[in-house]
Specification:
five-stranded antiparallel beta sheet; eight-stranded mixed beta sheet; SH3 type barrels; 2 domains; globular; about 30% strand
Length: about 260
């Protein structure tokens, strides 16, 4: 399948990693997963100019405009599935630093639980992590899917979106690939070295809504509360209106006045 790639982009990514760009794919995560199941070892970036079936968290469609970044990183780390709690936060920090490398004002970029990145309060990037386990619960493979709005942002979304071009920054997919792959290598090494506390601390320093009241929506309930901190297992600890603390592991966070 790699023979259908238009161009080998491996010179853009860190040594020891490969990268392949396709003009169009159904989904970079789907392609990377297929390759993993066929025995591809990685580390390997699969990149696409467009996607016909891009996905976000919880099966949501990811609008895939030409000119934006769509990439998935295939890895086979010697880690247990239970070691993955800090992974989404490490990836979010890597994207944040890549955006800073592009020229985005550092103070304008925040990380939104569980795995979104915001510029001036609007979503610019999202992450979808998928994996497979062995019988002993170690990871068989890991696919980290990343979408970043470089030139276009979707309309009528649940959370307001923005792209770099709207902020006066024009950057090619190639240039962004170089920045992102380098930052991912650095932060993923922190995760592999099990430096979870450092990752959580870095994320919390730029976490959106910490110490503030937010609307929380899970699969079973909607409520408001003040975001307190990250739990040691990556859950979001929220102080409810009645003073009790609640930890959530899946859901969406919005401004308190979101209808």
């Amino acid at each position: 399948m790699l023979n259908s790639a238009e161009e080998n982009w491996s010179a853009l990514v860190p040594s020891g990693t490969e990268a392949f760009f396709f003009s169009s794919l159904s989904s970079t995560n789907e392609c990377a997963t297929s390759l993993a199941q066929k025995g591809e070892k990685g580390p390997l970036w699969i990149l696409a100019g467009s996607q016909s079936a891009g996905r976000g968290r919880r099966g949501r469609q990811w609008t895939s405009y030409q000119g934006n970044f769509f990439g998935s990183l295939l890895l086979r780390p010697s880690m247990k599935a239970s070691d993955c709690a800090a992974l989404p936060f490490a990836v979010a920090l890597a994207i944040r630093d890549a955006l800073i490398d592009c020229g985005v004002r550092e103070s304008s970029i925040q990380c939104k639980w569980p795995n979104d990145i915001l510029i001036d309060g609007c979503k610019v990037s999202g992450v979808l992590i998928e994996s497979a386990m062995k019988a002993d619960h170690s990871l068989e493979y890991l696919v980290i899917g990343i979408g970043v709005n470089l030139t276009h942002s979707p309309q009528e979304t649940k959370f307001d979106a923005v792209c770099l071009k709207q902020k006066g920054i024009e950057i090619s997919v190639k240039e962004f690939t170089r920045f992102l792959s380098l930052q991912c290598e650095a932060y993923l090494q922190q995760w592999i070295n099990k430096q979870d506390e450092a990752i959580y601390a870095s994320w919390s320093a730029v976490g959106w809504g910490l110490g503030q009241k937010r609307l929380i929506r899970t699969a079973t309930e909607t409520f408001t509360g003040v975001i307190q901190r990250l739990g040691v297992d990556g859950g979001l600890i929220v102080m409810l209106d009645d003073g009790r603390e609640k930890c959530i592991y899946a859901g969406d966070v919005f401004p308190p006045n979101k209808s």
